[in-house]
Amino acid sequence: MNQTLSKKLVLTLLAWFIALVVFFPIFWMILTSFKTEGEAVATPPSLFFDPTLAGYHEVMARADYVKFALNSVIVSVGSTLLALLVAVPAAYSMAFLPTPRTRGTLLWMLSTKMLPPVGVLMPIYLIFRDLGLLDSLTGLTIVYMLMNLPIVVWMLYTFFKDVPRDILEAGRMDGAGTLQEVLYLLMPLTLPGIASTGLLSVILSWNEAFWSLNLTTSDAAPLTAFIASFSSPEGLFWAKLSAASTMAIAPILILGWMTQKQMVRGLTFGAVK
Amino acid sequence: MATLELNNIVKEFGDTQVIKGIDLEVKDREFVVFVGPSGCGKSTLLRMIAGLESASSGDIKVDGQRINEVGPAERGLAMVFQSYALYPHMTVEDNMGFSLRLAGVPRAERRQKVLEAARILQLENLLDRKPKALSGGQRQRVAIGRAIVRNPSIFLFDEPLSNLDAALRVQMRIELARLHDELDATMIYVTHDQIEAMTMADKIVVLQGGVVEQVGSPMELYHHPRNRFVAGFIGSPKMNFVDVEVLDANAEGVSVRLPGGGECRVPVDGGDCRPGDTLTLGIRPEHLTLDDQGPLSGKIVVIERLGGVTSLYLDTEGGEWILMADGDVSHRVHDAVRFGFEPGRAHLFAEDGLALASLERHPLVNVERKENRASTSGDDH
Ligand SMILES: Nc1ncnc2c1ncn2[C@@H]1O[C@H](COP(=O)(O)OP(=O)(O)O)[C@@H](O)[C@H]1O
Ligand SMILES: [Mg+2]
């Protein structure tokens, strides 16, 4: 009894410790965003100071936050919907009509994530230039879709595989074609999984910086480019940069907060069913 | 209203042949049970009939029409799965009405058909529940209801009762038999449980290793098993077997030497036997009787009193035998007993396992459970 209690205590402390370590940079960034530029670079750093919104005012004055944010929303939601549209049929065929090469295909798809993106920057840049997709929302949406596709397919595959075959066969006996089977049975049954996959894809797209910095300049630039624009021209201004970053991650942080139950449920969906 | 015919059905998974050429005829409104040990290919055969699995070769015909290339839904059959396979995200009503919804049946008509099936199965007050909120027996009834709503020409059941506890299984068995009577439909039922087969079937198909061992009415299989496998599989407790030597044989009977030295003349066709041959004698536990003058003897090892009957497990010269005695026998463990049997109740099997044909057919072998309406009147609905 006593032993389990102390074990629980240790685990709780450990969890808090890890959570704090993970959260500290974000906390520090938010803190810095309310400082003046002078306080921001002071050593030792000051924990107590007069909070100011100056950083935010300046950021808002210098750039059109709403436009960047809108681009981020369009690109991350759009790429996620597109990825799901492609991944659902792909995962369906892999889960229910497997061939001896299915396993290998899945691993190969995942292995593309091991390639550093910069390795394919040149060809993709040139293709985009020739197709007129540079600095376009369409182009960035496609790149993000391709970037997340392996993970989305993989996750959907594992969720689909857990659906009892009997249920789908009963559906076929009842007269469901493949499309009806997917729409009326498979997708409702794996909805928690699909939702968390989608959320993950949105988050990954939202935070993506490499492609957005290299493929966009102004029209299609999302929030990651917005942050970057505060780090270059006249040297570093920590307070403004922090304010910009805080504004950039705020929407996704709130979304993650609101959907955390859903995320956990979806990611452990197969395990607890 | 449908007949089914299988012609030389073969199923291969890769290099392994799972179904090895099966021929079968199922009559209209017949209750046919496929029975056999686990892994013998019952489900595979049923799934080929359902259209969930394609036959490697052979013809499947419903009402004389070859349906091998027809999709599962268009075959007009309905299947009840062992796992029930209810749609977990739909209510009972939506589960039962799903096929109608897919077929584009208007809501009102759909509801009326679902209600009718629900009435037959006493599910009316559960229509708004999700499967999760139902007991095993209720889920089973919903699965059956889903089949009924489709008004199929043939019902297919794959071990529908094996997930239920024993008491419920007996109850559902009776309910299914009643349902068959009420719906007057052709039904094909798969089970590994020979009691389910015996109690429900008009016709039993015994399968083993992908081949049909015997097809016949329950009484035919019980009284005239074609071979040793069927003899051992049908009937509970299992038939007793012992090797015996032929003393004399002709077409009118076979005399054999019993363990312990006695003799017995079994009324089977022994035209192919020679004195000195070894045969296997089989006799069911319920056909052995305690008898102080009997030719066989043994010692009681275990005694099981069930009230109405008592099972005696005997250590005999022919091995361990089971004897079903009267419920009121006063014997106790370690008692030595003598017993015998009526020679007409015994079976003899040749070395290849095939039974020697009885000279007389049991009178109940061809008696059907109910008057066959299809042949006695012109009514067809
Ligand atoms: N999809 C499949 N692929 C390969 N072998 C299979 C497949 N389905 C069934 N089998 C094999 O076929 C045999 C019969 O299976 P099944 O019809 O399920 O038996 P039963 O229902 O009588 O227990 C088993 O040996 C099983 O391993
Ligand atoms: Mg089976």
Helix proportion range of chain A = over 70%
Oligomer: heterodimer
Strand order of the largest sheet of chain B: 6-7-8-3-9-10
Strand content of chain B: 25-35%
Structure write-up:
The complex is a heterodimer of chains A (273) and B (381). Chain A is mainly α. Chain A has two domains: 54 residues, no CATH class; 202 residues, MetI-like fold (Orthogonal Bundle). In chain B, a hairpin with a 5-residue loop joins strand 12 and strand 13. In chain B, helix 2 packs parallel to helix 4. Classes of the chains: A mainly alpha (273), B alpha+beta (381). At the A-B interface, helix 8 and helix 9 of A face strand 6 and helix 2 of B. The structure holds adenosine-5'-diphosphate and magnesium ion (MG). The site of magnesium ion has 3 residues of chain B, from helix 1.
Keywords:
heterodimer; A: 273 residues; mainly alpha; MetI-like fold; 2 domains; 15 helices; globular; B: 381 residues; alpha+beta; Rossmann fold; OB fold (Dihydrolipoamide Acetyltransferase, E2P); 6-stranded mixed beta sheet; 5-stranded antiparallel beta sheet; 23% helix; disordered C terminus; binds adenosine-5'-diphosphate; binds magnesium ion
Helix-strand blueprint:
The complex is a heterodimer of chains A (273) and B (381).
Chain A: H1 2-33, H2 37-41, H3 54-62, H4 65-96, H5 102-111, H6 121-131, H7 137-161, H8 165-173, H9 178-189, H10 191-207, H11 210-215, H12 223-228, H13 238-258, H14 260-267, H15 269-272
Chain B: E1 4-13, E2 16-26, E3 31-35, H1 42-50, E4 57-62, E5 65-66, E6 77-80, H2 92-102, H3 107-120, H4 136-149, E7 154-158, H5 166-183, E8 186-191, H6 194-200, E9 203-208, E10 211-216, H7 218-223, H8 228-233, E11 240-250, E12 253-257, E13 263-266, E14 278-283, E15 288-290, E16 296-305, E17 309-316, E18 319-326, E19 336-341, E20 347-349, H9 373-376
Parallel strand pairs in B: 3-8, 3-9, 6-7, 7-8
Antiparallel strand pairs in B: 1-2, 1-4, 4-5, 9-10, 11-12, 11-14, 12-13, 14-20, 15-19, 16-17, 16-19, 17-18
Helix pairs in contact in B: 2-3, 2-4, 3-4
Bound molecules: adenosine-5'-diphosphate and magnesium ion.
Adenosine-5'-diphosphate is lined by residues 13, 18, 36, 38-44 of chain B.
